[in-house]
Design a protein that fits this description.
heterodimer, A: 305 residues, mainly alpha, MetI-like fold, B: 323 residues, alpha/beta, Rossmann fold, eight-stranded mixed beta sheet, four-stranded antiparallel beta sheet, 23% strand, globular
Chain lengths: 305, 323
């Protein structure tokens, strides 16, 4: 792979020979970004995902129907442009185009928010445990082990029973489970990073532990974390879909891709469009995230390819 | 006599090694080392890999606080100080590491890396002042100050080592601990870095604790030399004394193994090769730790540990019963 030079060689030479001019460095992130841009699959996935996000955010405006409006004249009709139901309607006459995009909003929101929650808790927890080590590490990681041992579905069902179905609860439930993996990954990375001499140099200077964790350790493990995040988002979306499929997810009239696929699957024989549209949107999004994750992994760690 | 800048008295660093579930054994990385280092002078520390040289430097810095023994820096005792109380003394001593690239955070620009000690020790400096200091420091070690925004991976090993030295010197320490600063570099670059260190020493009145396993480099830079084996001092002497009349059999073997850049003399040289392997520091030999590989060892060597005492035939201090 050839590196794309943004400046001409003559400029570069001039910059080196002119001692009054500061030379701009190229960080590892910039290098990674350059490599990612050369990866066509990842780039396509990023483009598709951006289109998907825009569509999910602004698409519902393109339709004359609301997501909870029941069109009694068109119940369970096939997709048609004439009626304005681009994706058809479901068995109570709600427009599937708008509902698919609305469901996408919820699914992506859950994916991103729950991942962010797990990211923040997981990184702080894992980096602290790994960096401090010893007894603190032991206690912190045993807590993770104990939480791991809790049956996830049981936990979710309990939450639903006690607090009622609420979208916030889904965020909490999924986030509360997902940070465990993140904490373990981050802890392992931290332990290997803390042996490095630049951390020792910082310790020798008397830099505070907090600053070492957030300035020296965390930036160096973000590469691994970024890859993991792109794999966590689809996983969270799938978990939400699974919960919705079981009837534990978002509540009517709100919907998500998982809930739509569930409804569609029940009507598969009479109204196949109710399954095809949400399912393909879901699958496409998951593919995109996986390709981006793959591309990021290659871009951030070119030696491992 | 004035107080030495750095004084160690019977410093030991033991690491507990889990042995089964309940018991732990001690790995004696550094076992009873004492020396004094005058301001502005250089003490070379030589020895095989794993003999505790680097641990010694980390004990002085307080990264691995010593298990027992006492350390004085500039007249204040460091041992037993809390993390907070230790903080002002860290400015007096800085360290340069072996692997130049690993000692720099790959995500930080050179300017940020060199500025880090300033942030800690001179928080009153403004961002502009800090940047000016960083540039001065870069110039001091022979780097172009306009490279301030570049990242470590854009530099060569020798340049990275200069960055490491700039980072250490930016707070104007009195003592620089050099933990094998040249052993990861090409020979031609080694000379540059060693000469840079010597120039800086002259300019800033630095004291150096120069750890290496290359005897020629140590001979070039040191005023005094300490030879270590399995965490213990074998011999401590002036450079010229040590190289011309080595007293300890281990020192003799080390110096004999240095190639002479003259084929005729090299061929005629008598070399006493050490037999056997370096014993595990987990179960060092009884008595003199060197006796298992010593060409002149006798039964008495296994019975008691020889103390570091003035040698009979030279002004060195030697830990051998027959010197």
């Amino acid at each position: 792979m050839t590196d794309v030079q943004t400046t001409s060689p003559a400029d570069a030479v001039a910059a080196v020979t002119d001692p009054t001019q500061d030379i701009a460095g190229r960080s590892l992130w910039q290098d990674a970004w350059r490599r990612l841009r050369a990866n066509r699959a990842a780039l396509t996935a990023v483009a598709l995902l951006s289109v998907m996000t825009l569509l999910v955010l602004f698409g519902p405006m393109l339709s004359p129907y609301d997501f909870d409006y029941t069109d009694w004249d068109n119940v369970s009709v096939a997709p048609s442009f004439a009626s304005g139901h681009y994706f058809g309607t479901d068995f109570v006459g709600r427009d599937l185009f708008v509902r698919t995009l609305e469901g996408g909003r919820i699914s992506l929101l859950i994916g991103v928010v729950a991942t962010l929650v797990s990211l923040v808790i997981g990184i702080s927890w894992g980096a602290t445990a790994g960096y401090l080590g010893g007894r603190i590490d032991n206690v912190m990681m045993r807590i993770v082990d104990i939480l791991y041992a809790m049956p996830f579905m049981f936990f979710v069902i309990l939450l639903m029973v006690f607090f009622g179905r609420n979208i916030l609860l889904i965020f909490i439930a999924i986030g509360a489970i997902n940070w465990l993996d993140m904490a373990r990954i981050v802890r392992g990375q931290t332990i290997s990073l803390k042996q490095r001499e630049f951390v020792e140099a910082a310790v020798a200077c008397g830099v505070s532990s907090r600053r070492i964790i957030f300035r020296h350790i965390v930036p160096n493990l973000l590469g691994v974390v970024a890859v993991y995040v792109t794999l966590t988002i689809p996983q969270v979306i799938l978990v939400e879909s699974f919960l919705s499929f079981l009837g534990l997810g978002v509540q009517e009239p709100y919907t998500s891709w998982g809930a739509l696929v569930n409804e569609g699957a029940q009507q598969m024989e009479s109204a196949v469009w109710m399954l095809i549209f949400p399912a393909s949107f879901l699958a496409l999004t998951l593919f995109c995230f996986n390709f981006i994750g793959d591309g990021l992994r290659d871009a951030l760690d070119p030696k491992d390819r | 006599m004035s107080t030495p800048l750095l004084k160690l008295e019977d410093v030991r660093v033991h690491f507990p090694i889990a042995d089964g579930f309940w018991h732990s054994r001690a790995l004696k990385a550094v076992d009873g080392v004492s020396f004094e280092l005058e301001a502005g002078s250089t003490l070379g520390v030589v020895g095989e890999s794993g003999c505790g040289k680097s641990t010694l430097a980390r004990a002085i810095l307080g990264i691995h606080p010593p298990t027992s023994g006492r350390i004085w820096l500039d007249g204040t005792e460091l041992t037993g100080l809390s993390r907070r109380a230790m903080q002002p003394h860290r400015r007096t001593m800085q360290i340069v590491f072996q692997d130049p690239l690993a000692s720099l955070n790959p995500r930080m620009t050179v300017g940020e890396a060199i500025a880090e000690p300033l942030r800690v020790f001179r928080p009153e400096l403004s961002a502009a002042d800090r940047r000016r200091k960083v540039r001065q420091s870069m110039e001091l070690v022979g780097l172009l100050p306009n490279q301030i925004n570049r990242y470590p991976h854009e530099f060569s090993g020798g340049q990275c080592q200069r960055i490491g030295i700039a980072r250490a010197l930016v707070v104007e320490p009195k003592l620089l601990l050099c933990d094998e600063p040249v052993s990861a570099l090409d020979v031609s670059i080694q000379a540059q870095i060693v000469n840079l260190l010597m120039d800086l020493q002259k300019e800033m009145g630095l004291a150096l604790l120069f750890i290496a396993h290359d005897l020629s480099v140590v001979r070039h830079i040191s005023d005094r030399v300490m030879v270590m084996y399995l965490g213990k001092t074998m011999e401590l002497a002036d450079r010229d004394t040590l190289y011309s009349q080595p007293q300890h059999p281990y020192t003799q073997a080390l110096i004999g193994a240095v190639p002479i850049p003259d084929p005729v003399r090299e061929r005629e040289k008598e070399v006493t090769l050490l037999s056997g392997e370096l014993p595990s520091p987990l179960s060092p030999p009884s008595g003199c730790v060197f006796r298992t590989r010593c060409p002149i060892a006798q039964e008495v060597c296994a019975q008691s540990v020889p103390a570091l005492k003035p040698a009979e035939r030279s002004p060195a201090a030697v830990a051998c019963k027959f010197a």
